[in-house]
């Protein structure tokens, strides 16, 4: 037998639509004949909808780059592929993030100290790794990570090198994006302080 | 059918591409869950990183008795508890919230529940156990059995936690409207 207290306990799971079988039938029947439960269910559904509609930040690709670097560092030495002389795009992207969020928190600082020296991860790289970099750019020093990531995505470019001692980065368009398209977006951006075309 | 079972099996065999795929599929909800409990983006990012490192190290030990997503949320749940312990922060578990006789006005709660600022504020007033239960129920649409697996407690405990969380949330939302707190 299902008591009123039981129904109150089940109501959130009716709101998220995960109740099944007898419990669902009992909860639905109780709600159908009780206006107070109907209003409470409506309130719970409103809360759920509001929570799910919130746009959540997450570390995204930068977090993945950090993960891959540490996974690679854990791999047995024998399994590690020969070290490439070139900084791969994923490593550099994480390095950009490191610089971009300096002063905002510690997690990337702790995660990125030896990034340029990290071995190349097996089986994981960004699409533009190995491409020529037509642009050298200077990013505004206080740029938040989210803004930088949004610009890279909007312009369709990846970091293929840097930062240099002067804080400059090499950017290359990803497959399907022309240099002119990328350049137009980069030049229009407030966070790009300087853009130079590489010869 | 668990949509992530095959991918985790590949991770267990040392497939880094599979790990990247699993990360991309679950990073956002797992991060959101961690952040809902820590309310600090940088600490939450560290914990997320630790979670997926553990997935990488422990994938071979996954026995398939739960969904992969539930297993990973369980790792995240324990990582946050470990962090709280290191900080010396101890939320009292399962104590009954103070009893209040006046019931919140449900109609008012419907209106307040549509305002993100009210909902965010009221979620933050909940204790970790209560916030965890309501977050998993409403962000991730988990069943109470799945939440019980994540938290490692009996199903009845989850129902009780969600019940109290709901009650406190409704009281808080109703109070915000009655006090005319701007959304």
Automatic annotation (TrEMBL), chain A:
TM region positions: 88-109
Highest taxon of source: Bacteria
Keyword Membrane set for record: yes
UniProtKB keywords: Membrane, Transmembrane, Transmembrane helix
UniProt name for this protein: Uncharacterized protein
From TrEMBL, chain B:
Any one GO molecular-function label of the UniProt entry: DNA binding
Residues of the RNA polymerase sigma-70 region domain: 22-89
Any Pfam family matching the protein: Sigma70_r4_2
InterPro entries (alphabetical): RNA_pol_sigma-70-like, RNA_pol_sigma-70_dom, RNA_pol_sigma70_r2, RNA_pol_sigma70_r4_t2, RNA_pol_sigma_r2, RNA_pol_sigma_r3/r4-like, WH-like_DNA-bd_sf
Record CDD domains: Sigma70_r4
GO biological process: DNA-templated transcription initiation
Domain of life: Bacteria
Domain (RNA polymerase sigma factor 70 region 4 type) ranges: 119-169
Keywords noted in UniProt: Sigma factor, Transcription, Transcription regulation
Family recorded in the similarity comment: Belongs to the sigma-70 factor family. ECF subfamily.
Record protein name field: RNA polymerase sigma factor
Organism annotation: Psychromarinibacter sediminicola
């Amino acid at each position: 037998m299902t008591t009123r207290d039981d129904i109150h306990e089940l109501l959130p799971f009716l709101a998220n639509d995960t109740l099944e079988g007898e419990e669902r039938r009992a909860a639905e029947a109780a709600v159908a004949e009780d206006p107070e439960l109907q209003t409470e269910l409506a309130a719970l559904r409103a809360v759920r909808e509001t929570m799910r509609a919130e746009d959540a930040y997450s570390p995204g690709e930068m977090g993945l780059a950090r993960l891959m670097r540490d996974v690679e560092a854990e791999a047995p030495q024998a399994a590690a592929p020969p070290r490439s002389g070139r900084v791969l795009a994923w490593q550099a992207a994480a390095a950009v993030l490191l610089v971009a969020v300096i002063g905002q928190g510690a997690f990337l600082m702790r995660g990125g100290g030896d990034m340029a020296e990290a071995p190349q991860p097996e089986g994981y790289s960004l699409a533009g790794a190995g491409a020529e970099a037509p642009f050298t750019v200077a990013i505004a020093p206080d740029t938040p990570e989210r803004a930088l990531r949004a610009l890279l995505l909007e312009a369709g470019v990846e970091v293929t090198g840097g930062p240099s001692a002067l804080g400059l980065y090499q950017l290359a368009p990803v497959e399907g994006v022309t240099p002119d398209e990328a350049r137009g977006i980069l030049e229009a951006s407030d966070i790009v302080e300087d853009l130079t075309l590489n010869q | 059918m668990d949509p992530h079972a095959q991918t985790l099996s590949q991770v267990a065999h040392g497939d880094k591409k599979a790990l990247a795929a699993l990360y991309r599929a679950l990073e956002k909800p797992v991060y959101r869950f961690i952040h809902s409990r820590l309310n600090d983006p940088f600490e939450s990012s560290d914990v997320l990183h630790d979670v997926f490192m553990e997935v990488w190290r422990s994938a071979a030990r996954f026995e398939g008795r739960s969904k992969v997503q539930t297993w990973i949320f369980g790792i995240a749940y324990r990582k946050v508890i470990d962090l709280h312990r290191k900080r010396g922060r101890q939320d009292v578990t399962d104590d009954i919230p103070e009893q209040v006789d006046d019931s919140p006005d449900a109609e008012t709660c419907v209106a307040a529940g549509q305002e993100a600022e009210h909902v965010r504020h009221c979620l933050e007033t909940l204790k970790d156990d209560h916030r965890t239960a309501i977050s998993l129920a409403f962000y991730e649409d988990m069943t109470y059995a799945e939440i019980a697996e994540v938290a490692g407690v009996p199903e009845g405990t989850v129902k009780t936690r969600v019940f109290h969380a709901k009650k406190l949330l409704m009281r808080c939302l109703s109070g915000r409207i009655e006090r005319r707190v701007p959304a």
